[in-house]
Structure to design on (259 residues):
């Protein structure tokens, strides 16, 4: 049964979508079967693969509407990554966004049913959540095995994590006692900035061994993903950002093997 990991943070622009795309690609390149699910109404995940929402393609909203088989919305987003699949959110208008949030408000179990049906086909399912702790994030945390929080490496970074931890602990207590922490990931670290290692030390002091050893650097090659419409691995494998995500994939696999 695949591990289901919610990528969450109430702070925007910290690298949730980038982590889903690039970590997912690296794990699939080392022969893991990976599914990325976009639950963010902004649909950033699909855009990273050049999937335009105007193209009539079934997405999560269609599955939620009619309860049809999830296979209908699964896409192979990159021809050189045959083990990587995605389910785009495919929310095309404000009206559809309202409808999507309403469905998740009144029937969050619809999302749970969709993801439960396909878990068995993958080793890892990463769910890219919006920068809020509202219905989509709550529904995902209700069935996730664990959650992963990217933390942008900047002053007061630790202060941004408290509310996301509290929200996750509340859901663990009320609805999903098995919910674990997959890890905290330091992102956009600028090695040239004098404060970077101090920030990393503070994050490690607060969150201890739950912080991944791998640090994702700030790298313009990573910022090119939406324009290139592919994970960085596919167009600049040796860039610092790509190497960091490869290292993170290896760190995750070695942790899984550890007793
Ligand atoms: N390590 C990095 N180095 C440089 N740019 C990055 C890095 N990671 C992400 N970016 C860029 O920063 C922006 C925000 O990243 P991303 O979209 O992954 O964040 P997010 O947490 O998903 O944002 P949102 O909360 O809005 O969904 C994007 O333009 C992305 O290309
Ligand atoms: Mg995002």
């Amino acid at each position: 049964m695949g591990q289901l990991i919610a990528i969450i943070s109430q702070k925007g622009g910290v690298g949730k979508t980038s982590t889903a795309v690039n970590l997912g690609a690296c794990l699939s390149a080392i022969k893991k079967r990976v599914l990325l699910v976009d639950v963010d109404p902004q649909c950033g995940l699909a855009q990273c693969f050049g999937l335009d929402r105007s193209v009539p393609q079934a997405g999560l909203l269609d599955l939620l509407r009619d309860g049809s088989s999830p296979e209908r919305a699964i896409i192979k987003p990159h021809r050189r990554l045959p083990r990587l699949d995605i389910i785009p959110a495919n929310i095309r208008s404000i009206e559809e966004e309202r409808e999507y949030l309403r469905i998740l408000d009144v029937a969050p179990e619809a999302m749970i049913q969709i993801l439960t049906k396909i878990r068995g086909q993958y080793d890892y399912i990463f769910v890219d959540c919006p920068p809020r702790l509202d219905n989509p994030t709550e529904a995902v945390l209700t069935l996730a095995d664990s959650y992963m929080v990217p933390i942008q490496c900047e002053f007061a970074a630790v202060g941004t994590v408290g509310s996301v931890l509290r929200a996750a602990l509340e859901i663990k207590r009320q609805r999903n006692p098995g919910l674990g922490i997959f890890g905290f990931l330091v992102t956009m670290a600028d090695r040239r900035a004098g404060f970077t290692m101090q920030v990393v030390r503070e994050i490690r002091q607060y969150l201890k061994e739950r912080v991944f050893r791998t640090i994702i650097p700030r790298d313009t090659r990573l910022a090119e993903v939406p324009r290139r419409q592919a994970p960085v691995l596919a167009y600049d494998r040796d860039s610092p950002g790509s190497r960091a995500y490869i290292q993170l994939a290896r760190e995750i696999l070695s942790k899984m093997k550890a007793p």
